């Protein structure tokens, strides 16, 4: 074999190895895939012109390929990147812009950044919201610790939703939830988004989100001081949830879209038991009471009333306050029905003390949820004690009698003075002169008698609500006062 033959043989062998290597590389290299990427950016919805970028990544969240930029198309947060070719299905999206503030019904005064990490192979409809933003750093942390994207995303979502008591909605990925969907998940998103924004301007909100994201990324839950802040924010937002709902519906209607928003109160964990929505009755649920009225003898007693409820219930006794009721009597502190109340599983236990009043009294105990929504009422009527002794007046009682008699005395003094002027000067003009010069004399007389009558009637009503032992005395004074007035 000559040199030329050796050369050709060597070239064929090299080419064969080279071809095999190239074929192997082609088999192992990822194939690009076309993704048609669109979605929404929502806090409240970002407004048109806000910017959004998408950065392709590999399974380790390392940047690959080019960054693509776009703008939000309308005031409802919609965006689209069109068809893009990515070597891997993973991507980071970042939105920056002004947004509709659902807590006050106005556009934000400054911009906000929101992030999300997604696997486009699952769904190319990608929404960016508070849920995706809060779990963004947690996903990064879990992948850095060796977890695959799918499992990291699943764990971060589970942890985040659990932190807010929303475990029942964890199966729907945050990047597929929109506040305009009218679903339970969208109501949960609205509730949490509003909770974190309430009573904060955009600068404070941005700072708060950064704190929450960092804290959650490290541990997958929130610290106790953060939980305390969240609880305080719940109280601040409680009576504004209805207006938040109305603001959002109105905003979307302004741009031609009718949306449904469920009752937001059901998507916050009010009693901090780890589950949102179990504190209020759902549609079709009710609380049943074994009794709604209880008649009690004067000596009182212990009573048990069965309660059937699908949710935790609490007690609230209706009381009426009167400025005249304190210290009417000497050495008697309590003249109302006195009840020790307790809830033991499905039973209401009442220990009722003897009643000091001469006449029967009543009170009402309300069964409520943790938000003070009344679920049922029990009226308690206790017999009076006709043989109750008459106590001495206390400090308030003495003061009221003094004010009453002082006003009566002053009124009669003014009235007697006019009568004397009339008697001795009936044929002169002095009576008219006196009244004209002292032109508020008649007004003073009227005011004194009116004030006396007001005091005695209020005092009479207040005493009737308590021991009801001085009514005959009040009647002696109240009738003449009414006649004078």
Automatic annotation (TrEMBL):
- What name does UniProt use for this protein? Carboxypeptidase regulatory-like domain-containing protein
PROSITE patterns, per the entry: PROKAR_LIPOPROTEIN (PS51257)
């Amino acid at each position: 074999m000559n040199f030329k033959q050796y050369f050709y043989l060597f070239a064929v062998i090299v080419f064969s190895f080279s071809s095999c290597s190239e074929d192997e590389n082609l088999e192992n290299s990822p194939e690009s895939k076309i993704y048609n990427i669109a979605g929404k950016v929502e806090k409240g919805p970002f407004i048109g012109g806000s910017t959004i970028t998408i950065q392709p990544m590999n399974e380790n969240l390392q940047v690959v390929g080019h960054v693509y930029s776009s703008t939000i198309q309308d005031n409802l947060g919609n965006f689209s990147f069109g068809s893009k070719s990515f070597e891997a299905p993973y991507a980071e999206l970042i939105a920056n812009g002004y947004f509709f503030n659902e807590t006050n019904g106005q556009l934000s005064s400054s911009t906000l950044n929101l992030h999300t990490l997604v696997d486009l192979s699952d769904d190319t409809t990608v929404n960016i919201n508070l849920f995706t933003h809060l779990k963004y750093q947690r996903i990064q942390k879990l992948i850095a610790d060796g977890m695959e994207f799918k499992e990291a995303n699943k764990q971060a979502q589970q942890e985040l939703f659990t932190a807010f008591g929303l475990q029942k909605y964890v199966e729907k990925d945050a990047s597929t939830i929109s506040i305009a969907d009218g679903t339970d998940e969208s109501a949960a998103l609205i509730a949490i988004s509003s909770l974190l924004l309430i009573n904060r301007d955009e600068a404070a909100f941005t700072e708060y989100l950064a704190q929450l994201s960092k804290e959650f990324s490290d541990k997958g839950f929130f610290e106790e001081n953060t939980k305390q802040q969240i609880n305080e924010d719940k109280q601040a937002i409680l009576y504004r949830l209805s207006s938040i709902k109305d603001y959002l519906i109105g905003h979307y209607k302004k741009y031609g879209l009718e949306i449904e928003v469920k009752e937001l109160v059901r998507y916050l964990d009010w009693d901090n038991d780890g589950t949102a929505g179990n504190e209020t009755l759902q549609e079709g649920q009710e609380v049943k009471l074994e009794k709604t009225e209880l008649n009690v003898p004067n000596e009182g007693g212990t009573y048990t009333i069965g309660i059937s409820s699908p949710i935790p219930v609490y007690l609230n006794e209706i009381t009426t306050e009167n400025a005249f009721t304190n210290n009417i009597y000497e050495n008697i502190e309590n003249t109302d029905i006195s009840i020790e109340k307790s809830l033991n599983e499905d039973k209401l236990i009442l220990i009722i003390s003897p009643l000091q009043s001469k006449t029967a009294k009543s009170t009402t105990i309300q069964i409520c949820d943790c938000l003070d929504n009344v679920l049922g009422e029990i009226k308690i009527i206790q017999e009076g004690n006709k043989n109750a002794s008459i106590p001495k007046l206390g400090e308030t009682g003495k003061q009221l009698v003094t004010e009453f008699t002082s006003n009566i005395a002053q009124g009669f003094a003014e009235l007697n003075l006019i009568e004397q002027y009339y008697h001795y000067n009936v044929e002169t003009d002095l009576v008219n002169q006196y009244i004209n010069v002292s032109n508020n004399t008649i007004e003073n007389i009227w005011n004194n008698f009116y004030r006396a009558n007001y005091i005695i009637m209020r005092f009479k009503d207040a005493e009737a609500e308590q021991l009801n032992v001085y009514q005959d005395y009040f009647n002696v004074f109240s009738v003449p006062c009414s006649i004078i007035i």
